């Protein structure tokens, strides 16, 4: 259900090169772990009237990789997958549009992607996790709304997508659709948009995959380490 951009950048090669992505140096100035920038409690000088203004939580390259789920978090089977990849800003707009229905991903800074496939299964049980970090929450929200509108439009020979209720596990915004064996869950936390695309997962497992993703994402955005 996605075009995908493969082999853009191998994760390890990009961490150092993109250390400044997301508006910070990879460390929460309020004491957070590497990966989260502008984590809760961070400030960026005085705003209107001399009041300090909090910056929305965002992710640098390290955080984009760390926030992707690992196979050990899924208890319904053994999952395998390729190495996670991170996408630099120069390629981020195309990467985002290719995976999010061709919408204009204005403001996207970088992204990351990882596949998980159920081992030893002849079916196509798989999930693809993609994250996109934006400069502002408004930009992230605009892209999420554009994708939702596109999913509601007629879809040609494949027929329409059906909106479904999926509990995201604490996203700021979310919606989900299904068609045949596909379930897609789209979510936003702060300036980060998450898309969980599943095939032959069914709605319940797709919901669980979305919750795993949001749990890791929120922890990393808050300055934590989900693998500690």
Give an overview in words:
With 228 residues, the chain is of the alpha+beta class. The chain is built from 5 helices and 12 strands. The chain has helices spanning 11-17, 61-66, 89-99, 137-152, 202-221; strands at residues 36-37, 43-46, 52-54, 58-59, 79-80, 85-87, 108-118, 126-134, 162-164, 173-179, 182-189, 192-199. The strands form 3 sheets. Strands 5, 6, 7, 8, 9, 10, 11 and 12 form an 8-stranded antiparallel sheet that branches. The protein has a two-stranded antiparallel sheet with strand order 1-4. A hairpin with a 2-residue loop joins strand 11 and strand 12. The longest helix has 20 residues, at 202-221. The two termini are 33 Å apart. Mean pLDDT is 79; it is low at 1-33 and 40-53.
**Low-pLDDT ranges:** 1-33, 40-53
**Count of DSSP strands:** 12
Count every helix, treating DSSP H or I runs of 4 or more residues as helices.
Answer: 5
Q: Give helix % range.
A: 25-40%
């Amino acid at each position: 259900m996605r075009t995908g951009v493969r082999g853009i950048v191998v994760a390890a090669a990009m961490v150092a090169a993109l250390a400044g992505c997301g508006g910070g140096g990879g460390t929460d100035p309020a004491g957070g772990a590497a990966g989260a920038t502008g984590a809760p409690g961070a400030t960026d000088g005085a705003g209107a009237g001399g009041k300090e203004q909090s910056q929305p939580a965002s992710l640098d390259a390290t955080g984009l990789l760390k926030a992707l789920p690992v196979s050990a978090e899924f208890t319904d089977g053994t999952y395998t997958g390729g190495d996670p990849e991170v996408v630099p800003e120069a390629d981020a707009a195309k990467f985002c549009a290719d995976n999010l229905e061709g919408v204009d991903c204005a403001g996207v800074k970088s992204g990351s992607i990882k596949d998980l496939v159920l081992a030893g299964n002849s079916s196509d049980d798989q999930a693809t996790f993609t994250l996109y970090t934006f400069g502002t929450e408004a930009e992230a929200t605009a892209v999420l709304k554009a994708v939702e509108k596109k999913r509601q439009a007629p879809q040609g020979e494949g027929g329409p997508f059906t909106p479904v209720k999926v509990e995201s596990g604490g996203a700021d915004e979310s919606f989900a659709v299904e068609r045949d064996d596909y379930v897609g869950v789209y979510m936003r936390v702060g300036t980060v948009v998450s898309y969980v695309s599943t095939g032959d997962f069914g709605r319940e497992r797709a919901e669980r995959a979305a919750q795993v993703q949001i749990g890791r994402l929120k922890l990393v955005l808050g300055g934590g380490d989900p693998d500690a």
